């Protein structure tokens, strides 16, 4: 190790070696913000390609891109998502990348989602999954009704990053109630570190120990997330840690077809 590595830690090339393929057991990153220019994630095709390159190095071959649909903030539609997906897919094809991307969405539980549910106009993942989220500030009173409504449409709801909802940290039974209502739970990989704070880490590790998670996502928005993920993969035995949970990411491969871009057309 050179003097600068000793002084400032691992070099970028050393980090790449240490993280190479470590997340390949997940096969699919089913929650990220890699589509360019349509939410608070990647802001350009170039940035998307850089993020994908980094995540691919950690072992991901396929990505289900889930931009926000959030009324008044990120008012995405099937059309805007499809356009960004086509743009990035074209660039991947031009670069001869073996990576495959698919399009769905992360739906905020708000009045806009209620309207999409009524029209059966959700952006659905392969396998019939629908990713939903709530505000970090307060619990949505419509959560359980939304779960029921999604089931009634024949889909399976997944609640994104439940460990990040601080209002549940002292009411842990709520996680069980959500699962009992038929909602699957998705872990943000960064939550097993202190990236979002100590309380989020404690909640995530407690839920992992209890075997409560069904899916894992990177929730990658930008380069800072990518660097933090590389750090997590270097420091934590992620695969061993998740053995207590029946992680379904690999099962998504059964539903992914080369030309299937999900219900965004």
TrEMBL record:
Kindly give the InterPro entries that the UniProt entry links to this protein. Answer: Caps_polysacc_synth_CpsB/CapC, Pol/histidinol_Pase-like
Catalysed transformations (reactions): O-phospho-L-tyrosyl-[protein] + H2O = L-tyrosyl-[protein] + phosphate
- Quote the EC number: 3.1.3.48
For this UniProt record, the keywords arranged alphabetically read as follows:
Hydrolase
Q: Which domain of life is it from?
A: Bacteria
Is this entry keyworded Hydrolase? yes
Report if keyword DNA repair is assigned: no
A Pfam family of this chain: CpsB_CapC
| Record family assignment | Belongs to the metallo-dependent hydrolases superfamily. CpsB/CapC family.
Q: What is the protein named?
A: protein-tyrosine-phosphatase
Annotated organism of origin: Sphingobacterium tabacisoli
Q: What is the lineage of its organism?
A: Bacteria, Pseudomonadati, Bacteroidota, Sphingobacteriia, Sphingobacteriales
């Amino acid at each position: 190790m050179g003097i600068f590595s000793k002084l400032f830690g691992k070099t970028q090339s050393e980090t790449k070696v240490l993280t190479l393929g470590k997340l390949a057991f997940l096969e699919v990153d089913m929650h990220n913000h890699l589509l360019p220019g349509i939410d608070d994630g990647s802001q350009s095709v170039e940035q998307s390609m850089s993020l994908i390159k980094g995540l691919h190095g950690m072992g991901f071959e396929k990505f289900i891109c889930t931009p926000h649909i959030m009324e008044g903030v990120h008012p995405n539609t099937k059309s805007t998502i499809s356009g960004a997906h086509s743009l990035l897919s074209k660039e991947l094809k031009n670069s001869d990348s073996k990576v495959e991307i698919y399009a769905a969405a992360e739906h905020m539980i708000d009045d806009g989602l209620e309207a999409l549910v009524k029209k059966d106009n959700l952006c659905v993942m392969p396998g019939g999954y629908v990713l939903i989220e709530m505000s970090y500030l307060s619990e949505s009173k419509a959560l359980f009704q939304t779960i029921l409504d999604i089931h009634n449409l024949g889909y399976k709801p997944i609640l994104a990053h439940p460990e990040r909802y601080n209002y549940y940290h002292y009411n842990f039974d709520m996680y069980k109630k959500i699962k009992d209502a038929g909602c699957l739970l998705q872990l943000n990989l960064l939550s097993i570190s202190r990236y979002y704070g100590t309380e989020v880490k404690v909640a995530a590790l407690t839920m992992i120990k209890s075997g409560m998670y069904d899916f894992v996502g990177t929730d990658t928005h930008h380069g800072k997330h990518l660097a933090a993920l590389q750090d997590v993969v270097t420091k934590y035995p992620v695969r061993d840690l998740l053995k207590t949970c029946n992680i379904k990411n690999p099962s998504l491969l059964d539903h992914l077809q080369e030309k299937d871009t999900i219900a965004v057309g």
